[in-house]
Write a structure and sequence with these properties.
With 75 residues, this protein is mostly beta strands. The protein contains no helices and six strands. It has one domain.
């Protein structure tokens, strides 16, 4: 299955055991028009350098054991 990631404006990945979030994530860099990102109830403990998400307006990280937030660089 192929998707046009560039057209995506919303992404929900809930309870999938993701443990790290940064702009180096190859999927996120393909989504320049992402407006809403829900990563709630994962295992994310670090958030770094999210400058690739220039259009992001809503970020849900509830239920994650976040211990480090570094240079998010969000709009």
């Amino acid at each position: 299955m192929t998707r046009d990631y560039k057209a995506m404006t919303e992404l929900n990945i809930v309870s999938e055991k993701i443990n790290f979030l940064n702009s180096g994530n190859s999927v996120l860099t393909k989504m320049p028009h992402l407006v809403k990102l829900d990563l709630s109830y994962n295992k994310i403990d670090r958030i770094q350098n999210l400058e690739c998400l220039k259009m992001l307006q809503e970020l849900n990280l509830s239920g994650n054991p976040i211990r480090l937030i570094d240079d998010m660089n969000l709009p």
